[in-house]
Amino acid sequence: MGKVLRRARGTGIGNVQTNYLIPPHSKQKLEDVSARMGMSGAEGLEAILDHLQLEADGLPSWADRDKLQEALPIAKAS
Fold first, then answer.
1. pLDDT in tens, 2-46
2. Is 38 exposed, middle or buried (0-12, 13-18, 19+ CB in 10 A)?
3. Other Cβ atoms within 10 Å of 34 Cβ, number
4. Which of 27, 68, 73, 75 pairs with 8 at a CA distance of 20 to 30 A?
5. Are 30 and 41 in contact (CB under 8 A)?
6. Alpha carbon distance 32, 12 (integer Å)
7. Closest by alpha carbon to 12, among 62, 38, 46?
């Protein structure tokens, strides 16, 4: 068996657990990339998110803005 990659003791204090259903190939890609970086899957995902480049509108450059729902108009108070 291969080495189990884990976060260093004490470095995950205050972290929260997430649970998302993703396709198996996406999970495998995360595990492969994380292992190549010498990290657990959780650390790898954290590193990817920390290095995600966002535009001024808070979205990544590759996001399809044409498919985004426009903000709903706020009703005026009478």
1. 666 777 787 778 889 999 999 999 999 999 999 999 999 999 999
2. exposed
3. 20
4. 27
5. yes
6. 21
7. 46
